[in-house]
Design a protein that fits this description.
The protein is about 70% helix and about 0% strand. It is globular and about 70 Å long. It contains 13 helices and no strands. α3 packs parallel to α6, α4 packs across α6 and α9 packs across α13.
Length: about 280
């Protein structure tokens, strides 16, 4: 290896380390702060001088555990509905030939380009009309609408790459479209399903605007709204320690899920990128 190659390799790894530090440091500092109490919260520490679990105990008091349950239920149901609708829709878009198929796929993707605030008023009226206000189903409906375009797009791209011979063999054996989807394609779609499902779960877990607008009582709030309601009379009265502890509590499960399924995520995101 020449000195020039060594130099650029060192520069590449230095850049990678720099990007990782920039990305990880905010979460690391939140973890450090979550173990600090009193005046230590307003001092800069890169390592907590004293470990204390008081912030976590205070964060788990009140309705915050209920908010975690609400977020888990809403995100899980959103993922199930999104994947079910996306798998069936992607089969039609990828395997069934009909006029306007490409335009329909582009239209579905265009729905995700609208900012949340632009459709908030109309979606609020829809939620009130359906009688879903201040229920988990209001968030499930809105989250499913906004996660479907991405899931349909990814699964359609992935399904197009599956060999047509598999489907033809199933048709010869007398398999119906639902049997083909559930028993033939579904086992092959796991990388894409994990990717889209996890990203849909993260989006539903972290969403704030709809959760704030469509709920009014504490027992129906999700974790982002519950954390936002931690407040005090002044800046020094604001419970920054419990806020950091609650943020760590709701972030760690997502980090663990990403680390567990990281290979599936990469395989799903790169689906359709290379042929041959």
């Amino acid at each position: 290896m020449t000195p020039r190659q060594i130099f650029w390799k060192v520069m590449f790894y230095a850049f990678v380390v720099f990007v990782v530090l920039i990305s990880v440091f905010p979460f690391y500092y939140a973890v450090v702060t979550s173990f600090e109490t009193g005046t230590e919260l307003f001092q800069i520490h890169y390592f907590p001088p004293h470990f204390s679990l008081d912030n976590y105990i205070n964060a788990l008091k009140g309705n915050f555990p209920r908010s975690i349950i609400n977020s888990t239920f809403i995100a899980a149901v959103t993922v199930v509905l999104s994947l079910f609708l996306a798998v069936t829709a992607s089969y039609a878009l990828a395997r069934v030939r009909f006029r306007g198929r490409g335009l329909l796929l582009i239209t579905i993707l265009a729905v995700s380009m609208f900012p949340q605030i632009a459709v908030l008023a109309g979606l609020y009226e829809l939620v009130r009309f359906l009688g879903l206000y201040n229920t988990p189903w209001a968030m499930i409906l809105s989250y499913t609408i906004f996660t479907l375009p991405f899931t349909v797009w990814v699964l359609t791209t992935f399904m197009r790459e599956l060999p047509i011979e598999i489907e033809e063999a199933a048709i010869v054996d007398g398999a119906s479209p639902w049997v083909i989807i559930s028993q033939v394609f579904l086992p092959l779609l796991w990388p894409a399903l994990v990717t889209t499902g996890l990203l849909a779960f993260i989006a539903a877990w972290n969403e704030f605007l709809f959760a704030l607008t469509f709920t009014i009582t504490e027992n129906q709030r999700t974790t982002p709204v519950a954390i936002a309601t931690f407040s005090g009379a002044t800046q020094h009265d604001t419970p920054w320690g419990p806020i950091m502890a609650a943020s760590v509590i709701v972030t760690v499960p997502l980090v663990i899920l990403v680390l567990i399924f990281q290979r599936k995520i990469v395989a799903g995101l790169t689906a359709g990128g290379v042929k041959g």
